[in-house]
Amino acid sequence: MxxxxxxxxxxxxxxxxxxxxxxxxxxxxxxxxxxVITPPGGSYDLPVSVLIHCPNYDATIHYTTDGSDxxxxxxxxxxxxxxxxxxxxxxxxxxxxxxxxAIVSQTYQFGSAAVDSxxxxxxxxxxxxxxxxxxxxxxxxxxxxxTLDGSDxxQNSNRYIRPILISNSLTIKARAYAEGMIPSLVxxxxxxxxxxxxxxxxxxxxxxxxxxxxxxxxxxxAVIRYTRDGxxxxxxxxxYQGALNVSSNTLLKARAYLENWQPSAVASAFYVxxxxxxxxxxxxxxxxxxxxxxxxxxxxxxxxxxxxxxxxYVMQDMQEIVPDRPKGDLTWMETISYCNYRSILEGxxxxxxxxxxxxxxxxWPAYWFTDHSQxxxxxxxxxxxxxxxxxxxxxxxGGNVSNNYIYSGSSDIxxxxxxxxxxxxxxxxxxxxxNEMGLFDMSGNLWEFCWDIYHHEYPTTDTQNPTGPxxxxxxxxxxxxxxxxxxxxxxxxxxxxxxxxxxxSHGFRVVRKF
Length: 514
Description:
Strand content: 25-35%
CATH topology of the largest domain: paralog of FGE (formylglycine-generating enzyme)
Helix content: 10-25%
Number of domains: 4
Radius of gyration: 38 Å
Largest sheet: 5 strands, mixed
Low-confidence stretches: 1-27
Distance between the termini: 115 Å
CATH architecture of the largest domain: Alpha-Beta Complex
Number of strands: 38
Number of helices: 5
CATH class of the largest domain: Alpha Beta
């Protein structure tokens, strides 16, 4: 064999033998460094604040003070320990994937008995108003000293004589002393104060006329901030300086602020101005729908699509809203429940029933929103409901004063509709011109649900108050929306959707029997 090759093989073999003789280390066989307890054990005449530290990053330390060996179920060390009586302190460090440290121990001895800890009453927390705080120590003749700035009290601190009146957020600390005894441990309690709610002078509800609303607060020095757009007030919101004129549907929110106090919770009130009067009466009439003549009895139609404020007011579905924005993200089934809830709220007879479960949606089965075939309508009831397709079309055309415009209210779409040519999302209700009967947004903004089960053709014979097919999978929608082109916004355009599918482009308006 070549001499040089032999030398190389001998070196490789030596390296391999050397490697085999070494134990490979890993986290699983490494032990954590022992905790260090400072100060060390011994005899003391005053309480001791003990620090426990482990050099290993991310290690957790568990300890005991009764002489037992600590494990992972023992107390977790998180801050300085106060000791003022004879104590055997044991500690051990732990970390996943590592061998736990050895147990370290220190014994602390005190030549005298310790004063009992001070009891603070009440024991801290969040309060709506000022509190009288009492301090008590059960050790006879003990004197109590306290601080209100978070520092540990000593005998040069405030001496407790009578209950302490606390009216702003702070931490109270107390320690008791008695002659010939070790001082007590430091007791502490944190007090925070949240202002009471602002008070509206007018109850929320439905009002026929505009209202003046005043906001007050039990603490005259508190500052009140308010909003009208459904958002929660902040310190940057409008400052309340006097009575507010509420002349349209408004969700009013208010919050109080005062230095050294937590701001109040948000107080809110719905003011719906003439909700019932926001309906336009359509006299009965006859019109040609393109296939046949349709005769309709008189009925009321909502002047606007149902807004977010109207939805929240009826459904008590608390959320941040834009009050005058049409309510979208709805399924056909959800609008059915709204109609019944609103009817009940205003004292009308609900139109819709679900199977044999009656007209109150609260009694409908949990799965009710999955099966539209179980929904039936009492056409003689005077409550709110969705328009039939023909009621919608007649209203969009302008009823018996129709000018036969292409869109609802005009043949110029930009004057009356929000659609893909001028909108990127739903607009506030009523910003465009109304149609001949004062109805807004029947073209564009949101698709509007109708009652009818959809069929691709109208009946070819003349009809009176038609309500659509008796069965089918989808429900009709009319009017187009902010994301459709102009051709979908005409008064003649028809569309449909599954009744359980919602979209940000799906909305509705209500009608009611005359």
